[in-house]
Structure formats: C-alpha cells, structure tokens
C-alpha cells in the first residue's frame, strides 16, 4: 500500500478541512456564527424566517396571508396560503427587467462536441411562451397533467417551464426507463399529453426512444396527444391524429407571441415525480408551487453560494429530483447560468466532464459519488488534460460519499483547496436538507455535516427518544419546511403511513444516521440497509467505505444475509480494479482489512467478486436485489429501474459458487 493510501484510509472521522477564510467576505453565509444565528432564528420563529425568505427570493402577484398551516394528524401542510405566483414568471419573466435579460440562462452541451446552444433569459422566455401556446392549442389547461419522457436537451427545460406557465403539473419520467415503467407512471398521473423525442444520444449511439413511448401509449387511455422532438433523426412511426413534431408546432407560433402566466395559488400542484419505495409501485411525490420554488431557490443560493457571474453545472439528469431542483428551478429562479449536458462522463474519453468545465469555465460543479468512483478507477491522469482553475466549489449528492472518493475529488478536481458540499436530501424533501455551507462549515470527508438553517433534523430511536452521539438511529425532520412533499399522488393513505406514522409530529426520512461528538451527521444509508449482526447495528455504508478504502477495490456493496445464530451475517459484493486477481488471497486480505478498519464485527463472512453491481439508472446500487440474491430468492421484484439487468444473472451464478 502506498503511503498516500495509508494516510487516506486513516483519516476517516479524524481529518477536518477548515473553510477558506479569504472567501468568507463574499459568501451568503460567512461563518459558523452566521449559520448558528440564522438556524436559531429559524427554529424560534419558523414563520417569520420562511415568510421573509419567500418574499426575498420570489416575486408574488399577491401576498400570502399565512406562512404555514400544519396538521400532522391528517397530515396536511400549507405554505404561503393565499399567495399567488407562477414558477415560470419567477424563472424567466422577472429576469427580463432586472438586468439579466441578455444573460445566459441555459448553456447546453450536446453529446456531440459541436452541438452547443446557449439561451439568454430573453431567448428562453420566447421559446417557453411559444411552446406554452402550442400546449394551449392542444387543450392543456390549468391542472392537466403533462408527461415528459425526454433526453437531456433544452426542449425538456422549455417544456417544464411551459407547463408551469399554464399551471399544468408535469410528470417527468427519466428517459432511461422502460416502456412498462413509463406506462404505469402515465396511467397513475392520468396525463393528457406526452412529450418525447425520436431518440436519445448516448455514448456515441442513437438509442430510439419513440418506440418505447408508442409501446406505453398502447395502454394509456388518458393521453390524447404526443409531441415528438427530433433529436436523433432516426425513422419513427407517427400515429395519425395523436402524434406531431415539436418543430412543426412551434414553428407555427409567432416568434414574438407572448403567453401570459397563470396566477397560481401557492399550494397548486407544480409537478409529480415518481420515486421507488421499499415495497409496491412507485410513489408519485407531489410538490406544489410557492413552497417548492422558495426552497429550491433558498438552498441553491446558500449551499452553492451562487453569484451573478457564476457558471453553475449540475451533472444530474433532469429526470431525477436533482435535475428538477438544481439544473432548472433553483438556478433559474435566482437568475443564474445553468449548464445542461446531454452526454456521459466517460465518452468519448473519461475526461469529458473536465473538458466541459474548462470549455465553459464552470465555477460550481455538482455531481454524484458513483461518478467520482468511476472516474477514480480510470486514473487521475484524465483530470490533468484541462484547466480546472475556474472551479471554486464542488458538490456531491445521491449516496454517502466514502472518504476515499471525497479525498480524490478534493485533491484532483478541487486542487486540494476547494470546499466539497456533501448534500443529503430526497425526492420528497424537494431540496437539500443537510449540507455544509461552503465557506462556513469545517468539512469532514464522508459527513454531510449539519442541517441547513431552518431544518429540524434529528436522530432518534424507534421510540422517538433522542439517540446519543455515535448511536445509529432514525433520521427525522420534526418541523415542516417549504419544500416538503404535499402528498403521494392519488394515495393520501400512503403519504400518511410512509412519512408521518412512524414518529408523531415528524417527517420520517427512512434513512439511518448518527451524530458524531461534534454534532455532525453521518448518513448510514436507508434504514433497510442497516444490518444487525448479533445485536450489533452495522451500516452497510460503513463497511462499504472500508472496503473501498482498500487500494485494489473500486466499488463494494454490502447486504445482510440471514444467519441462524447471528440473525444476519455480512455479505459483500466487491468490484476490483482492473488487473487485480480475484483469488482466495484477495478474499483473505479484504477480510483482514475490514477487521482492521472497523473491527471484527464488521468482517464480511462472504466476499463475492463481481464485474458490475446492479444499479438504477441514476447510479444507486439496488441493495434490494443483492439481498434477494443472498437470500437465494429468484424473485427480484420490480427490476424495471435497473440500468443493466444482465448483471443480476452473473451475480446469481457467482453466489451459487460461493455459498
Ligand atoms: C437527492 C436524491 C434519496 C436517498 C436518501 C439517501 C440517499 C442522497 C445523500 C444520500 C447519503 C448523501 N442520499 N444524498 N445519502 N449522503 N449526500 O438523491 O434523492 O433519489 O430521492 O434519493 O438517497 O438514502 O434517502 P432520491
């Protein structure tokens, strides 16, 4: 093991990175004292605090009468009741008269290098108005749902903003989902219109998309119209009377035609986004107008410390909540410049992200740990081909970032000096909940640090009593916040039982976490990922992090395997670095390694080497599937969200050889 590696794996809880004092003067939150004061104020007077934030950040057609009405028993939460506003107005119209009219709103980089488009706020406004008029002609009105199944192209953002202009909630289905997944989501939301494209361009290939839409629409009686963007130029079947081309429709609209914004109530539905639960069909998470946008703008401003000159890039797909809040709504509400990228990090070469950073002189960069680990595997040479000196702030989201990945990111992308904000949140929370503030919070690699101002995050035991430092517990939020989900579409009962039944008077996140002695939060993963070995609670993330700290390991996933005596025993799936021999010695080494890193209790009983792990298309490891494999069950439940289903067959074979 190299010395450097040794040092990295010893750091763990120990190392603290202090904020860059020279940046504090310009920051929105300048110090821990600032943070503490703001948090305290928000805790003592939530209505005063959020009412002020909502007025500072958004433009309202008429003021709200009441900041919050909360009823945990029903449950029902109303933010900014009586207030009237419009999301499209806040993201576009108001910037036409506040000095940002000619500023780049969206910088789009297509998968082919030569495909770049830049929309100023004025240009984006024009396109959104034109497309809103198209939708109007198709009969879309306030309250109608519109389904979007599209690649990462500007038309996706345009369609979202056009929907919000009309007050028509959108329901975006990630373009990587299958026709079955699309069909069930459209059916659940009863969308009237579907917007899609002929194809998705991905890693140099043209992957037809329209056939999936056609397949789904065979069984979607609610959909009357389908609008198709030409992206791949491949042949598609158009159904007479139902399908039309985006360019034909929009070209029929006057280029100067306006489309007035609907005056929406703060609590009118804004969008539905489906997310998978631990059981049953996906839940349609409902977000509403005033609270969601306030919270998206608030968190974008504080966590990413966005300023008017910044070029900000979030690499998520708009099909996930991260793309909704941090590519489109948060940045545009603030009048920022947001980069949208159609491609993948590794094509044509594993330096594509850094090339884009250099090309647009990106200042703020937000990505996922799975991306960092994949790029780590390719080696740090790839980070050296471009000038990354424009960067001033890095972010991470989606899963716990293991300290090794954090340190790699910090050193190779952040030049050993940039803050990394590890942001914990969920589709349901609408925006970031626990995160460092980049120029205030001392950072500990692997910790999401502290709750944002106004967020009453707590760690409690099953009976609701507070957990002690270093004792794992349930992560709950025991005060409402403006970005919280307002319902599960069409299923209020599920809304109640999933989120508000477990801990009376609080929102249950379903995640496990612990505080350390400094009150920093360490997210341990979904609670169903916590293993109980002989009465000891072990976070899968902790063991995974230890495995990944080994110099020969790229990725690891740990699950509990039923065990007669211990209750559960630890089963680890491990992907090794290219060229490393997956033999018995390696198994032995890794067991000793984990034993040393965490302790004997954490030593995996089984280690299965795997070329790949089953992941969702957003890069989350599907531990549910891994658990089923170790249980010897052939029934993997809904696997429609798997990026590569063939991985599972290989793992089942490997498991048979091992156990
Ligand atoms: C934004 C997003 C939510 C789940 C969440 C948690 C995990 C997200 C994390 C994190 C540790 C972080 N998660 N961010 N775990 N540290 N910084 O990812 O939403 O797709 O709904 O997933 O992701 O387990 O409960 P969503």
Alpha carbon gap, first and last residue: 30 Å
Query: Which oligomerization state do the chains in this entry correspond to?
Result: single chain
- Beta-strand content estimate: 15-25%
Low-confidence stretches: 1-11
Features:
alpha/beta, eight-stranded mixed beta sheet, disordered N terminus, 659 residues, 19 helices
Short description:
The chain is of the alpha/beta class and 659 residues long. Helix content is 31%, strand content 22%. The chain is globular, with a radius of gyration of 24 Å.
What does this structure look like?
A hairpin with a 5-residue loop joins strand 24 and strand 25. The longest helix is centred in the N-terminal third of the chain and has 17 residues, at 121-137. The two termini are 30 Å apart. The protein has 659 residues and is α/β, with parallel strands linked by helices. Helix 7 (179-189) packs across helix 8 (210-217), helix 10 crosses helix 11 and helix 13 (369-378) packs across helix 14. The chain is built from 19 helices and 30 strands. An eight-stranded mixed sheet has the order 12-11-8-6-7-14-15-23, sandwiched between helices. Strands 5-4-17-16-18-19-20 form a seven-stranded mixed sheet, with helices on both faces. It binds ligand 6R9. Ligand 6R9 binds at residues 275, 320-322, 397-400, 422-427, 448, 509, 511, 523, 525-526.
